[in-house]
Write a structure and sequence with these properties.
single chain, 257 residues, alpha/beta, TIM Barrel, binds pyridoxal-5'-phosphate
């Protein structure tokens, strides 16, 4: 008897990870890069800790959060599993203290006020922190990230802040289903990194390029990505806050909430 197999949530997530891993592997081989040179970061915004745990137990070791609030909530729930946590969202200066409590890298440093606030707090705590500089390579207004034309000035200002270990660069890139249209964003980030190293504005080991998502990871790998960030292609479509609230209300049987 052939019964249509339905995967459990756990099997589905593991299957999705294998698919993404396979694509990354193929892309690395085609680009002549070693698969170890590219890490997969799981973008886990709105994903429940027990679901994230499935992915970590399947061997994934790098997760990224967008909101300090979620970071804090999940930290407790995930304290028994080993993983590296990066902050990948827009970081408000008044949330710096909490963000650095949970993150080992802040990928979204995009302005001097934020860098200075981080530095001040890290000095106080006598610690250092890995950071990436987020660049708005698509030049879309309203998007976080420093404009490519301003990045070297920003780096000059950040350079003296010795608590910040600049490890490389991050970009979100153009939102377009056509990966070829996104490619110039990835090229720009790579060129920015190479130029920054050449000018001595960042250390020679500031090689990280966090770029590429599920739709364009092959292109990103061709352009030199070292970290790919994937969320919904692994965990499924995100439940919005409104949906979440409704489902919660329904689960509580509170129809008028
Ligand atoms: C959510 C997010 C991703 C992943 O996006 P998906 O569409 O869920 O794959 C990557 N980078 C950042 C900064 C994100 O916030």
């Amino acid at each position: 008897m052939h019964k249509q197999s339905t995967l459990s949530r756990e099997e589905q997530i593991i299957h999705n990870i294998q698919t993404i891993r396979g694509r990354m592997q193929d892309a690395c081989l085609r680009a002549g890069r070693h698969p170890d040179q590219v890490r997969l970061l799981l973008a886990v915004k709105t994903v429940a800790p027990e679901i994230i745990k499935i992915a970590i137990e399947a061997g994934e070791k790098l997760i990224g959060e967008n909101k300090v609030q979620e970071f804090a909530e999940k930290y407790e729930a995930l304290k028994n599993v080993v993983c590296e946590r990066h902050f990948i969202g827009h970081l408000q200066t008044n949330k710096v203290k909490e963000a650095i409590r949970y993150a080992s890298c802040i990928q979204s440093v995009d302005r001097i006020a934020l860098a200075e606030k981080l530095h001040k707090r890290l000095l106080f705590e006598q610690r250092q922190m890995d950071v990436l500089i987020e660049v708005n390579t698509s030049l879309e207004p309203g998007k976080s990230g420093i404009a490519p034309g301003e990045v070297f000035d920003l780096l000059k200002s950040i350079k003296p802040l010795e608590t910040l270990r600049i490890k490389g660069f991050m970009t979100i890139g153009l939102f377009d289903a056509d990966a070829e249209k996104v490619r110039p964003c990835f090229t720009k980030l790579r060129e920015t990194r190479d130029e920054a190293i050449l000018r001595g504005l960042v250390p020679d080991d500031a090689q990280e390029l966090s770029m590429g998502m599920s739709g364009d990871l092959e292109t990103a790998i061709e352009e030199g990505a070292t970290i790919i960030r994937v969320g919904s292609a692994i965990f499924g479509k995100r439940v919005t806050a409104t949906d979440h609230h409704r489902q919660y209300a329904e689960a509580q049987g509170a129809a008028q909430l």
